[in-house]
Predict the structure.
Amino acid sequence: MRRRTGRLRTAAVAALCALGATLVAPSPTAAATAADETHDYCQGRCADILPPGATGNATLVEILGNKLFGTHPEHSTDQLGPYAALAGGYQSLTDDTLTNFFNDASFGVPADQVGKVTTPRDDVTITRDKKTGVPHIKGTTRYGTEFGAGYAAGQDRLWLMDLFRHIGRGELTSFAGGAPANQGLEQEFWPQAPYTEKDLQDQVDYIRDHNGERGKQAMADAQAYVDGINAYREQSKNGRYFPGEYVLTGHIDAITNAGEIQPFKLTDLIALASVVGGLFGNGGGGEVTNALSLLAAQQKYGMKKGTEVWESFRERNDPEAAKTLHDGQSFPYAVKPEKAQGTALPDRGSVTPEPLVFDRTGAATAKGATAPQDPVKAPKKYRKLEGLFKDGVLPKGSFNPTQHRGMSNALLVSGKHTESGHPVAVFGPQTGYFAPQLLMLQEIQGPGISARGASFAGVGMYIQLGRGQDYAWSATSAGQDITDTYALDLCNQDGSPATKDSTSYRYHGACVPMEKLERTNSWKPTVADPTAAGSYRMQVFRTKYGTVTHRATIDGKPVAYTAQRSTYRHEADSIIGFQMFNDPSAVHDAHSFQQAAAHIGYAFNWFYADSRDIAYFNSGLNPVRNPDVDPSLPVRADDAYEWRGYDPATNTSDYTPPAQHPQSVGQDYYISWNNKQAKDYDSAGFGNGPVHRANLLDDRVRALTREGGVTRASLTRAMSEAAVTDLRGEDVLPELLRVLGSKPVTDPALRTAVQQLAAWRKDGAQRRETSPGSHTYTHPDAVRLMDAWWPLMIEGVFKPGLGDDLYGALTSDLGIDESPSAGHGPTGAHAGSAFQYGWWSYADKDLRSVLGEQVKGPLAQRYCGGGDLSACRDTLLTTLRQATARTAEQVYPGDATCKAGDQWCADAIVHRAVGGLTHDTISWQNRPTYQQVVEFPAHR
């Protein structure tokens, strides 16, 4: 068991008392010198941005200053203003003014811009530019280069990395406190990737031993990176300039400096990688929920009709869906068989989720979102620091790996359609907004490495999204199906009759025991988290078919449902692909980039641009299934239905070859916003229909491409306009207005409401301020009406026809709305990302059917007004009347950030404090967190 560190409450109070007398020592630095020249073929046309700022660490004094006076450490917030300003300034954007909103992403640091310079070893220098403080790491040896990358990560994200390795290990509450949100977070994460220390070490060994020289080099690089983190960890501790959160959470005494920041090790990187991959690179799963909605459909409509209804909502391969590959390319994967075999649907009412938490004590026994508190009192002058993490180190809703997440977008245009004749790309990951950010900007130059961009803190030995010498790349979450659910027949080894609680199962004819994985956590109150002392034990059962998620009966016989993910036990194998991305000898054109991307095991869409080509490749460990298995539903745990070539000891199988993954070079343009990749590449979840947020990009980029002369500025404007547009208003409201307008609207209040909505749609259906800083939208009443009307309208249209049970089951598969202010989507409130998951496609198809239009892939029956236009109109008017009666305070009820009724604030982006610093709230934008704008005019 990992040793836990913690100090008594008296030490925590004493630490705060000593603040006034404690001096904060600076990091070791050397004289400022200019960085050497490096091959850079972008010639000043590469730009990037990552708010709020490069600096992510803050000492205790700096945290106190932030709370008392609103001050920030240098470079911790200087990218927030330019990032925020684009929402109000994009309309007049030109190539010359891009640098008002983005950083210059050229290699190196000009001599007159050299800021702090650190030399942690003789063979590496970390130069930070004056404007942003981004670390530019230059090494003369491979080890020194990676050591420098780890050292810079420690300088910028030590607390964050420590936090996330504990999340990955399922030890968050023991590390950061027992706040209910912390309990919830580790209870969401750990069951998705539960490992023993041996499991983590086995993954390190697997990478080293199964990938030739690149695998050996990757682990040598990772060890150097860890050594760099540990060097900074030790120096900052001894020099007393470590992050102040360690004092507030009771790990270090500020007076005596007693305490510990636990050393990092290679297995921590595996734990960190499991968090990152689990959030952004997974796909599939949810087959039990799918089964429940299918059963509800069959219960209502009968077997045949119910299956047809369910499939029409499932939209596995919708012909109207926006696709990244739009030239008709077909890449069949995870397709529905004509006659599925091995499907394991549960008996109705028999499904129960697998219990996770046992042996609760103290505050852990509290029910609900609150827990008893036992505050650690600080002196009056330091009271601002009390309860810093009382709501958890990550606010509730920040992450939930069990929910589908929509992340990242990309816009690329071929040089055939640009003003310069060279490709243009605007792309980046949409990873939410945190302080400090989960990603960190860096440039790494050394033997075999030449890149600048963003890396997830703690696994940043390579640039994961960014640019090389003459190319740039980025990714969006793909979400294809790499997770299946198996139904295991339960048994007892003593031969007694099995029950749903049995902990053995049938495997190839034998009754074998499940492996029990456990994690026991305990905590005590600290200055930061006043939650009273408590503890609990988490327990997960692991089988040869994955971890147990539910139990049920099938034909009266007990079964356990398990989740089998292809990347389980291979959380960091993708390091090989990232290593190649950073190696200029490995990536030199579009095809070599695709070959590198094929080494990424997680489900991502990869995009590439150089001076000649744009390209796309979908990565992921796509298991080869029995073609008679339906991947959308649970399947019996029988060797006939296993993944082909499956080895449970290593969780490996046969994988579809790279040629079968969606890919392309030289399409006229590419867009992606977590939409469908290609024809016949079946969607793993619900919601890939004719109305998708990717349409906001596709419509604009298609128009630009047809017009020609695309520039960096014009493509950025297209992205920015989509980022402030309401998908419902742009793509569904026209049909709603047509139904309403099929007869004159005579009620004065309703007529006014319709006019407001129509005017908003004509003006672009945007959620944009009248002017920067006004905090008032251009069409506030229409936006409020749409926010109030949408959920009422969806329920009014669909619930009468579907019935309560089926409607409820389908909303479990896909939420009805994800507006910026909703706060109920996978990303929570104030998160920026919006309009990924909702019933917009269902409404669009149904309304067009009622209007008598041709619909490809229609719903199995019409719902609005039972298919009658007049009755449908009545339903829309009735629900619109209900919406008009809702006040702003009811639509936007307020929260810890916003007053009730404040529409702008309800939408606004809040950087969720993962540490002690907070930042200004900014206007809503639905855009990548880290974003590049690139155009390479030259090539090697």
